[in-house]
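Summary of Year 1 activities. Much of the first year was spent building the evaluation harness for sequence design. The harness presents a backbone, in tokenized form, and records the residue chosen at every position. We chose the following record to illustrate the format because it has been used consistently in internal testing since the harness was completed.
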């Protein structure tokens, strides 16, 4: 068996939400290196276009499409534009998401704010899955990768909305694997541990990092490329009999903010 075809995405079209920075950008770049045509979805057009241009500069194929994943019409436009430009969709990385970085005091967080985090981390992914799966079924190849978080299984203070939304994303993914499997579409989660992104930098201090590393056998924090490697595994043919799973990429340990 040759290794190369197992990771070859030549001829495949991939959408990556939140593709302008951090983990999303790393996913865009690695999928493009594997041969995929990448649609960089980002709320800020200029940021998405910069990533798409960087891919094109290296000889890859990429298109930037501005998209706020909380806007249903924007999600529809993202899918329509992709199909219009490239004729198919094979891969979706639901990377856009967020919370309040350990500042979700349950006595200060409103019900509307709690719900907004679920809309961002769960509802938007669910809606986009429904939009892309029929196109994947027609293409005869489909892989969806939802970016979850170690927070989905950790227990930490002031994280109730974000953590529970990511736990919901995990379980939604496991159930959707049954719904999509007969359509030849796989769906899995990648769960980053503490990864050096702009979001982490807003809360990371030397003291917090030291405490994190004390419980991390591979003694460093993650890099976006570490997460992108796991995404490539799920996106590529090498994982064609894997669905409904959560792969945590965390250096073998547990990193929390407390």
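For this record, the design step produced the sequence shown next.
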């Amino acid at each position: 068996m040759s290794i190369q075809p197992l990771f070859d995405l030549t001829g495949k079209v991939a959408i990556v939400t939140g593709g302008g920075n951090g983990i999303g950008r790393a996913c865009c770049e690695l999928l493009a290196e594997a041969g995929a045509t990448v649609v960089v979805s980002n709320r800020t057009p200029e940021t998405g276009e910069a990533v798409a241009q960087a891919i094109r500069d290296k000889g890859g194929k990429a298109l930037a499409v501005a998209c706020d994943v909380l806007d249903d019409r924007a999600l529809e436009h993202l899918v329509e534009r992709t199909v219009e430009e490239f004729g198919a969709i094979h891969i979706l990385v639901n990377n856009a998401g967020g919370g309040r970085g350990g500042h979700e005091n349950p006595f200060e967080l409103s019900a509307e704010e709690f719900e907004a985090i679920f809309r961002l981390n769960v509802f938007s992914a669910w809606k986009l899955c429904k939009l892309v799966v029929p196109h994947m079924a027609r293409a005869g190849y489909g892989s969806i990768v939802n970016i979850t978080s170690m927070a989905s299984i950790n227990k930490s203070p002031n994280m109730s909305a974000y953590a529970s939304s990511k736990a919901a994303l995990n379980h939604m993914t496991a159930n959707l694997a049954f719904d999509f499997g007969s359509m030849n579409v796989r769906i899995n989660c990648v769960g980053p541990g503490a990864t050096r992104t702009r979001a982490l930098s807003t809360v990371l201090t030397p003291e917090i990092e030291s405490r994190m590393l004390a419980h991390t056998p591979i003694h460093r924090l993650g890099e976006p490329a570490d997460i992108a490697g796991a995404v490539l595994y799920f996106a590529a043919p090498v994982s064609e009999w894997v669905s409904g799973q959560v792969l945590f990429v965390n250096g073998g340990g547990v990193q929390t903010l407390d």
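The radius of gyration is 18 Å. Quantitative recovery figures across the full test set are reported in Table 2.
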